[in-house]
Design goal:
The structure holds three protein chains of three kinds. Chain A is an alpha+beta fold. Chain A contains ten helices and twelve strands. The radius of gyration of chain C is 19 Å and the shape is globular. Chain C is α+β, with helices and mostly antiparallel strands. The chains are: A alpha+beta, B alpha+beta, C alpha+beta. The interface of B and C includes residues 104, 244 and 246 of B. Chain B: It comes from Cylindrodendrum hubeiense.
């Protein structure tokens, strides 16, 4: 996480922290606390993939995700286990994990660096938390699709790229199409050559729409009692808590005659919450003016003392964990009707899939 | 991390000015190579090459392994090279420098990918057993023109190498020791050699061959050709550097071809000498009762 | 592998319908990204690459044993080949020697073209993303880098324009009637000997020359001539892209037109 250097002085940090803990907070770019940075998105940009998307935030960060699917032979679980439904479930749980490979590429960083691995695991975990995901990749008892998601951050990593990568992955998965299966049962799979006839991995309309949609992972920070979504780099630098919250929409089959579809809102399920070590913890503390007596021989001891107690308006790296109340507030803000997740999903639905 | 000492400003001016006057520091002509020494070891497959103060040792070894699953009919052939701190403290163990990466890529392209060694002949039982030929390249001292030197050493060592003879009867594979049957040479198809040209001066108009380490640090550009005596190019590598006029490359290619022919003759001659030397004390000679009288 | 290109001799048309001296469709954009100092997107046929330039900026900590340069800017090149770029998904390791070789080639070519002595103690970071590959990869990367560096406003002597050139028969066939080919696609690269050549501006001066296949030395001249000619066409194209973008920026008022600009805007 602390991959980027923070180039803010303690005075700047203190200023940011103060303005962000006001009620309502004043964000450096003038957004409302729950407002996302404007973004442009397009899908289907790479004809060589099963699904692809490119998302471009207004601050210039940009990501491209390509999804490729390959057919793979399912390694059959030992027969003995099949009699016990529980262990069989466990086995399928395990194989499901291998069916999806997700790689994050961040320029200038090695792909085995801890922060990169953490990022890709967070994205993967949210996807796999959906129990129905493996069903979508199931062809027959002997074969399954293996999905490769390659997540590329194109721009230099200006802010923590998690929300960007997550939104791009979401769109790419929505745009992913698999060839239509022509064969039946457990025979070797045969597919329709016609790309027009291919089916979406996440069906868009019709009777098959029930089931979950691909998840989105939102980055939320808490500063004081304020909850701020989609933090920019400056905001992350003073965050007391940073959380990655993954949610997914679950669609139920609509009953016939249920006319008011839109007004019902959507059903959201919370998939995972992960705390992220905010870079603010590594910031150097400010020195209060009172103890900054450079010439004094007692300066070191005074500095020590200043570190113990907070002086108003002097930056000090946050310590400790997150209060329950703040956590509650975050989850509330994400999940409530008309909340942030709702808003983001609404926005993403507007992206035309090609 | 220790850094390589760069030539000082006065050294720099001295060498470049001398080159402008048509002189090299060691008194050679621009297109003159250093004296070359190729010696074979007592064992098969060991070759040492000296280009002036540059010294490289190559050793070939063979063992029986399982072939790669995607290439069941091919043997395994690898060239490993290591530039160790023995050459200069700036080279570190286990952290390949850029120079080493480029050297191993160049050898790979010149010898392995050009099909100099017939890897199909290394197959013993398709998909199950094959010979794995491994060349270990040790750079002992580095005084410029490492690529040419290393390539010559590897080719010479492979040409000199003998692998144990083997036979297959039904399903059983027998590998014979050198006492049972005379070891056999590798199935060799062609001998490519690297020739590196270094360019000096503003426009790259001074073309030098077989540069020393000092000269290499001051060159503006370099181009390495790999070519065999039949005039088949295996690769050309001019990785950036100053831009040069296109006709120069044709001119250099001709030079590379001539040099390659010379090197081919040299290796052939040395191999013949070595074979003669060995033949005298061969196993059959030991068994005969006759003597020189 | 069947020699699909063997049909060439019948109609003198290549697998994708081009003649011997035709380039594939070129498409390029510059300033594709706001966050970067310079950026470009380039398509050569189905080969699609993106380039992001950051810098010249304060020198970062030493990475991968690069020697620090005190009197000139250090150039770091980073090539990422996306897993989805080829037909079959392939994940290339970070230590792939082929990629490292490409990185060194680009860095060295730029080191002698850019006026790096103007930026001592600093570094220029170039990250390249390969989104789709269909032959002429190194050439596409070099061209994209040139565009992005122009966008970043880093002074250079001239454009580096690159393309590939090949020969219609394999090394084994000794026929002299082999035609040289320009700008090979992936299928042709698999079957035919080819080389990548990059020239400086409108001159015949070659900055990069890489050949990785076995070919008769007598063919070299023919391939070089065609390649250098192709580079000139590519340079024309790159120049046009830059001029169009410049004219657009002046029209939109992003930059002011100055007398120093030696370009004709009213075209």
């Amino acid at each position: 996480m602390a991959s980027q250097q923070i180039l803010f002085s303690p005075a700047e940090l203190a200023y940011l922290h103060r303005s962000l803990s006001l009620k309502p907070p004043i964000r450096p770019d003038g957004r409302a606390p729950t407002q996302f940075r404007p973004l442009t998105a397009e899908t289907g940009i790479l004809p060589g993939t099963n699904g692809s998307a490119r998302v471009h935030f207004s601050d210039g960060t940009e990501a491209i995700v390509g999804v490729k699917a390959e057919i793979e032979k399912t390694i059959e679980a030992p027969r003995a286990e099949e009699s016990k439904p529980e262990s069989n479930e466990a086995a399928s749980e395990r194989t499901r994990g291998d069916w999806l490979e997700l790689a994050v590429e961040i320029p200038g960083q090695r792909d085995d660096e801890a922060s990169t691995v953490f990022l890709s695991e967070m994205l993967r975990e949210a996807l796999l938390a959906d129990k129905e995901f493996a069903k979508k990749l199931f062809i027959n008892r002997r074969f399954h699709w293996r999905l490769y998601l390659d997540v590329l951050l194109i721009s230099p990593p200006l802010s923590y790229p998690l929300p960007l990568l997550s939104l791009t992955t979401h769109l790419a998965l929505l745009a992913t199409r698999l060839p239509r299966l022509k064969s039946e049962g457990d025979e070797d799979p045969m597919f329709d050559d016609d790309w027009e006839a291919s089916t979406f991995l996440y069906p868009q309309e019709g009777t098959a729409t029930n089931g979950s949609r691909p998840p989105i992972t939102l980055l939320v920070v808490a500063i004081g009692d304020n909850v701020i979504f989609d933090p920019a780099k400056e905001e992350l630098a003073v965050a007391e808590t940073a959380l990655a919250v993954s949610v997914a929409e679950v669609r139920r089959a609509q009953k016939a005659g249920d006319m008011e579809v839109d007004s019902k809102g959507r059903e959201l399920s919370l998939l995972s919450i992960r705390t992220i070590d905010p870079p603010s913890r590594l910031t150097p503390p400010g020195v209060p003016h009172t103890s900054n007596t450079g010439s004094s021989a007692f300066a070191p001891t005074k500095l020590q003392k200043a570190g113990d107690q907070e002086t108003e308006g002097v930056w000090k790296a946050p310590l400790g964990g997150t209060k329950f109340g703040v956590l509650d507030g975050i989850i509330q803000a994400v999940l409530e009707k008309g909340g942030v997740a709702d808003e983001v999903l609404d926005g993403l639905e507007g992206v035309e899939l090609s | 991390m220790p850094r390589e000492a760069e030539p000082s400003l006065s050294e720099r001016t001295f060498v470049t000015q001398a080159l402008e006057e048509g002189l090299r520091v060691d008194g050679r002509k621009f297109d003159q190579f250093r004296s070359l020494e190729l010696t074979f070891g007592d064992e098969y497959g060991v070759a040492e090459v000296k280009f002036g103060k540059t010294r490289v040792l190559a050793k070939v070894s063979a063992e029986v392994t399982v072939p790669y699953t995607d290439r069941p009919f091919d043997g395994v052939f690898t060239i490993t090279s290591e530039l160790s701190p023995m050459i200069a403290p700036s080279y570190e163990v286990n952290r390949p420098s850029m120079e080493e990466v480029l050297l191993s890529r160049l050898l790979e392209k010149t010898i392995r990918r050009s099909g100099a060694l017939d890897t199909e002949s290394l197959c013993l039982i398709a998909g199950q057993k094959c010979w794995s030929i491994r060349v270990d390249l040790h750079v002992l001292t580095h005084d410029g023109n490492l690529t040419d030197c290393a390539c010559l050493a590897v080719v010479a060592a492979l040409r000199h190498f003998r692998k144990p003879d083997s036979s297959i009867e039904g399903e059983t594979l027998t590998i014979y020791t050198s006492a049972e049957r005379e070891p056999v040479p590798l199935s060799w198809l062609h001998s490519p050699f690297c020739v590196t040209f270094s360019f000096f001066g503003e426009e790259g108009e001074q073309i030098l061959v077989d540069t020393t380490w000092l000269e290499e640090q001051l060159r503006v550009s370099t181009c390495t050709y790999s070519i065999n005596k039949h005039g088949e190019l295996c690769q050309i590598a001019k990785f950036g550097g100053a831009a040069l006029d296109a006709p120069l490359f044709i001119q250099c290619a001709t030079g590379a071809l001539n040099r390659s022919k010379e090197l081919t003759d040299l290796v052939e001659r040395k191999l013949a000498d070595d074979a003669k030397r060995r033949d005298k004390g061969g196993f059959m000679a030991e068994l005969t009762a006759e003597n020189d009288r | 592998m069947p020699l699909d290109t063997s049909t060439y001799s019948l109609a003198l048309l290549r697998v994708d319908g081009r003649r011997w001296n035709e380039l594939r469709r070129l498409h390029a954009q510059i300033r594709t990204q706001d966050a970067a100092d310079g950026s470009s997107y380039l398509e050569m046929g189905h080969t699609k690459v993106m380039c992001i330039v950051t810098g010249p900026s304060e020198q970062q900590q030493q990475r991968r044993g690069q020697t620090s340069q005190r009197d000139a800017a250090a150039i770091n090149v980073n090539v990422v080949i996306a897993g989805f770029s080829s037909v079959d998904r392939k994940k290339s390791g970070r230590n792939d020697k082929r990629i490292q070789e490409i990185e060194v080639t680009i860095a060295n070519a730029l080191a002698s073209n850019l006026h790096t002595h103007l930026f001592p103690h600093s570094s220029i970071t170039i990250s390249l993303h390969v989104l789709s590959q269909d032959g002429s990869l190194l050439a596409a990367l070099l061209n994209a880098t040139t565009l992005a560096l122009i966008d970043a406003g880093i002074p250079m002597t001239d454009y580096i324009a690159a393309c590939t050139a090949g020969s219609t028969s394999t090394y084994a066939a000794g026929d002299d009637s082999a035609d040289p080919l320009l700008d090979l696609n992936n299928q042709e690269e698999q079957e035919l000997p080819f080389l990548t050549v990059a020239t400086l501006g409108d001159s015949d001066r070659i900055a990069v020359l890489v050949c990785e296949s076995r070919v008769q030395v007598t063919r070299l001249e023919g391939m070089l001539v065609v390649g250098v000619d192709g580079c000139k066409q590519v340079k024309q194209f790159l120049d046009q892209v830059v001029r169009e973008k410049g004219a657009e920026m002046v029209r939109e008022g992003a930059v002011e037109k100055s007398d120093a600009m030696g370009m004709v805007l009213d075209e």
